[in-house]
Specification:
The protein has six helices and four strands; from the N terminus they run ααααβαβββα. With 142 residues, the chain is of the alpha/beta class. It has a four-stranded parallel sheet with strand order 2-1-3-4. The radius of gyration is 23 Å and the shape is elongated. It starts with 7 loop residues before the first helix and ends with a helix.
Length: 142
């Protein structure tokens, strides 16, 4: 019977939950030579944890803002009201997680990979604000 600690799927799930492999092996590591042999065997068959964990955590907000800082509270409040969101629904991110499609994305500069994203600088002038409101109106139902 295969040791359940060697199961790669289980190992990835535990890693994503924040449970490190050494915590699971601790009883074996404390138990003498048999434990040391088991730990060495486990380490040899264990997948690379760094490859399985995402480099960027997945944000929880409904609007992801790819920028270094949040916009002015007035602009953010107006935008959230227009989109039917609350300020707590906005997640400020420094980089987009790989392989994840954001629910709604706000970029500070256009990116051809994200044609449906809202595009507006963090400190917009009047023309940028008009363009942002126009982009938001296109998303409103009805």
């Amino acid at each position: 019977m295969q040791d359940p600690l060697l199961d790669p799927l289980r190992q990835r799930i535990l890693t994503r939950m924040g449970i490190q492999s050494w915590q699971l092996r601790a009883p074996a590591l404390l138990g003498g030579t048999k434990g040391a042999e088991d730990a060495a065997s486990l380490a040899a068959h264990q997948p690379d944890v760094a490859l399985d964990t995402p480099a960027v955590p997945i944000p929880s907000g409904k609007l992801w803002l790819l920028a270094e800082a949040l916009p002015s509270p007035a602009l953010l409040g107006d935008l959230c009201r227009l989109l039917g969101l609350e300020a707590k629904d906005v997640s400020l991110i420094g980089a987009l997680p790989e392989g994840v499609t954001p629910p709604l994305l706000w970029l500070t500069a256009p990116d051809p990979r994200w044609p449906d994203a809202l595009v507006c600088p963090i400190k917009p002038d009047a023309a940028h604000k008009r363009a942002l409101w126009q982009q938001c109106r296109q998303r409103l139902p009805g």
